[in-house]
Amino acid sequence: MSENDHASPRKTLRAGDNDREAVAEVLRQSAGDGRLDLDELDERLERAYAAKTYAELDELVADLPVTAMPSEHAPVLRSPARKPGRDDKPLILRATLDNQSRSGAWEVPAVIEAEPLFANVKLNFMYASCPFDVVDLTIRPGSGAVVLIMPEGWGVDTEELNKSWGTVRNKIGQAAAGKPTIEVRGSVGMSSFVARPPYFYEKD
């Protein structure tokens, strides 16, 4: 019996939510590495979340370097990523007069410092890749706003964030298994902090 004879039954098996999410994570990592542009990422993510079988998921990452494909025995895969380390250079976003932001496909560092002096800092994690279980986000006091837009499954912890004279609104809960947590500390001063899903609208 050939290798293809063994592989064919697997390709017809139904994929689960964990399998689809695992492939989506590889696609985000690949976009962060420059292997996919944002249009390709959007198109493949849409197909990944709509996939019904392993064959459909296999096709989405066939041209990308992955360590393992999901299977009925091991439904988790990750794209090769650098090992987590706390010695990486921090990302410092200092919004003096102009707004500062990160969005699209970007790799999240282990440490982020946000200082909304007289403008806003916006961190959109929707298409970001993160090789760390925990990311330290320190907020320096200011009069602007810090806004986090979070993908499904990621967590935000604001227990160590001092709201001072400002406001803190965290609409994100604990991280799902295998997903990163953004641990927020520091003080908002007279500014505001918001962590929310991508399509969140408050009622008047």
UniProtKB/TrEMBL annotation:
A Pfam family: DUF1707
Q: Which residues form the DUF1707 domain?
A: 13-65
Q: Where is this region: Disordered?
A: 1-21
InterPro entries, alphabetized: DUF1707_SHOCT-like
Q: What name does UniProt use for this protein?
A: DUF1707 domain-containing protein
Origin organism of this chain? Saxibacter everestensis
